Amino acid sequence: MINKVSFFLLIAVVVACSDDQKHANDSAEEKNRKSEELDAGATYRDDSTASQAYFEDETPEPPPDPHHYYDENGVLNVFVDNVDSLYAHLQSNTHIYLESGTYYLDDIDSSIANPYASWQVVLFDEIIDDSGWDKDDQTLLITGVENLEISGMDEYGVEILTRKLSASVLAFQSCKNLVLKSLSLGHENATLDNKDDPWVSYCSGEVLEFFDCMHVELSYMDLFGCGTRGFLAHRCIGFNVEESKIHHCTYGAFGLFDSKNVSIFNCTLEDNLYRDFIEIENSQAVSMEYCFLANNMQADQYTEHVLSIDSTSSFTVSDIRYEANEFGPADLEGE
């Protein structure tokens, strides 16, 4: 005789076996259905990763911002289209990509804080022309950054300008591993109708200045006057300029002071006025190769030298092409 307990245990076993068979049948039907749908092109998401993140209380990371991301070397890559964003990202370990347009440094929002950037007062003894000039004009100075690259996304479509005729456009101090690429820099009045006539425009500021910097590279740059010179380098080591153009400056092409290991390669220096076309003082291992010099003329009666170089400096010149200058190879390369 089966007692009540045994009877209920028997019923439970029968029900469990029935449920297992039902689940097995359902699973087989589900597999068959998914197999048929996969054959028809359907896809299914594997929820295992999402489920694991849920149970471990982890939030999946959002997709990266294509305009603001870190690469595998920890360098911030940022794409900007306005001068305030450019200013805010002037810092170490950063590659700034500038979209096409004109960036007026004078229009930077003064409320934006950047510990690496400051405005340097440019003082000079003589005001050339009272209109549009100010003794307190300032240059944007970048100090103490490493591994900074600023490059234009359009080789001929990115301008960085200042309206301050007595200020340099941009200056760098105590920087290391600095790259400027595919940028056009100059003073605003030289971008107007008088850009092709350096006598009409007149500035007392340089285009670029560098102080105590190491490993500087300028490539595919367009540096124009009326800036007095395309660039000045003071106490710099490892300074390379290539595939760049310096034009319509009013005092000369460039100047080097207490610097070494400087290379000017495959550059164009044209349509400049000069007092000292190239000035080199206490600088060693300076070379200029495969450059094109055209239509460079004496600025005025105060013109002194095509090449102003002291006895402590070393300068080698090779494969230079000359065209319609007010000087010849002998003035730059010697007899």
Question: What can you tell me about this protein's structure?
Answer:
It is a single chain. The chain is of the alpha/beta class. It folds into 2 domains: 4-55; 68-333, Pectate Lyase C-like, CATH 2.160.20. The protein is built from 4 helices and 28 strands. A 10-stranded mixed beta sheet has the order 1-2-3-7-10-13-16-19-23-27. The protein has an 8-stranded parallel beta sheet with strand order 4-8-11-14-17-20-24-28, with no helix packed on it. An 8-stranded mixed beta sheet has the order 5-6-9-12-15-18-22-26, with no helix packed on it. Strand 2 (76-80), helix 3 and strand 3 form a beta-alpha-beta unit. The model is unreliable at 42-56, 122-133 and 191-195 (pLDDT under 50).
Structure at a glance:
With about 325 residues, this protein is α/β, with parallel strands linked by helices.
Shape: globular
Strand arrangement, major sheet: 1-2-3-7-10-13-16-19-23-27
Helical segment count:
4
| Alpha carbon gap, first and last residue | 130 Å
Unreliable residue stretches: 42-56, 122-133, 191-195
CATH class of the largest domain: Mainly Beta
Task: Give the rounded overall mean pLDDT.
Answer: 81
Approximately how much beta-strand content do the residues carry? Answer: 35-45%
Oligomer: single chain
Helical proportion? 10-25%
Number of domains: 2
**Number of β-strand runs:** 28
Structural class, by secondary structure, is alpha/beta
Sheet of most strands:
10 strands, mixed
What CATH architecture of the largest domain would you give? 3 Solenoid
Compute the CA-based radius of gyration. 33 Å
Provide the CATH topology of the largest domain: Pectate Lyase C-like
